[in-house]
What we know:
Lipocalin; 8-stranded antiparallel β-barrel; Dihydrodipicolinate reductase
Amino acid sequence: MRIVTASLATALTLLCAAASAQDGFRRIETAQQFQDAVVGKTLRAGDTYVEVRRNRKLTGKINGEPFTGAWEWRGAYFCRTIKLTPKNTDCQLWEVNGNQHSITRNKGTGKRVIYVAD
Length: 118
């Protein structure tokens, strides 16, 4: 069962990567790429926004609710912990296409949201 699950997860990751390449997004794979493309910017999607700060702090609003948090780069993923109820930690796959940022939760297997950078 574990082999099937691992194979399915790998296949889904490859399909997501192929779909992203087709829509012009390029994956952010290193901490330096993340620093260059994201840090210091405010990203918006609807009534949600997040400020990704150089001091590894996050501030913003999710559905109108203010939050604070912290971030770090782990391997090939942006990992953040935000202070809401309950505390929420997630490692995400990030991709960029100009001022658009695609963020896919749960290391690229979860929900995908497109943010626009100011």
